[in-house]
Amino acid sequence: MNSSIFHTICNCRICGKNNLNNILDLGEQPPANSLRDNPEEPLPSIPLSIVLCDNCKTVQLKETVKPEYLFSKYVWVTGTSSTAQTYSSFFCDEALKRLRNRELFITEVASNDGTFLQRFKKRGHKVLGIDPAKNIAQIALDKGIPTKVEFFDKKVAESIVSEYGKADCIFARNVIPHVDNIHGVISGMAHCIKDEGIAIVEFHYGENIMSELQYDSIYHEHLFYFSFQSLCFLLRKHGLSAFDYNVSPISGGSIALYCSKNKRPETSKLKEKLEKDENSGLSLEKNWLKFSEKCFDHKNKLIEVIKLHSGNGTKMIGYGASARSSTLLNFCGINHRHLVCIADGNPIKQGKFTAGTDIPIVSPDEAFVKKPDTVLLLAWNFEDEIVKTIKEKHQFRGKVILPFPNDPQIIQL
To answer: With bands split at pLDDT 50, 70 and 90, how would you rate the model's confidence at 70?
Structure first.
């Protein structure tokens, strides 16, 4: 354990109250994206657990790792996923439907490699990205996407407005849950947009996590696991009101929530969703404790499946060295003795070893040269995309283990 890079919270990050109830403890784990060139390199081991605030009902991590450690050099590249590429076009269309001006200024918080901003730029709009990871921001700059290499907050927002003016739209996709200084980010987003502008917050929905046992989505980068109610509570604190939403295919069940300063009328779709969310039980401690019990049951079931299909002359590989796979592998004790390697299409990850489990990460081509009998689909949230690839491109015929949603499943190709 290395206490110099993390601290444990006593008060809720949203409302400041100190009545936090323990929900799930996934043990001590290294930060998910701490991939190494050498498996002998030492790694910090940090507690990974979630709590529920009894006041504002926000589910959140109990530990906060310094953002400089997690995000200054990043390994997730949006453009490597064809699902994300396709979704970026839909996302752009949906945002533009809600904006009236012909020539817009669009800003993205944690813009990564610029995949989403590129869609707006191709439509003739002015764009600006903000991302703290120099290595990933450079990819965006090489594409011609203007990008500021900074951690976004109210101060950065003020400098953007001073230099570029107010934005018609600012969006943050699956980044708000990553931020300890969450009030600084939300107030910064509100400051950036025009009075008639919109802010879009995309987040991995807590209901999907609870109902589908997605405990693999819990890792040190993800500080919050929002319901509609808890996120809207936060947004209202900074003068933003939700008026509509869309479902996103990213992360195994995300929501893109559209917000405004001027309280645009709520759509009937959002009103219905808010009512369902309120009745979903996401604010109840007993439901999260039941979720915790099911997570341990799931762990035991998956371990049995892995034991049955690895060893004894058979070869198993993993597919997708995602951050969420790190939680699953470490929690379940699945390591290099079970998986020959993990295939991943992201060149930044290839040649490295997984955090805590020491599994080599290789290109998909290299992985399938090994002629595996079974594939553990760690990036199960991209099931359709990956199964098609391994079946058609790599001519794989064998078993595919889907660890989620809910209990492990096996499909035969």
So the answer is: confident
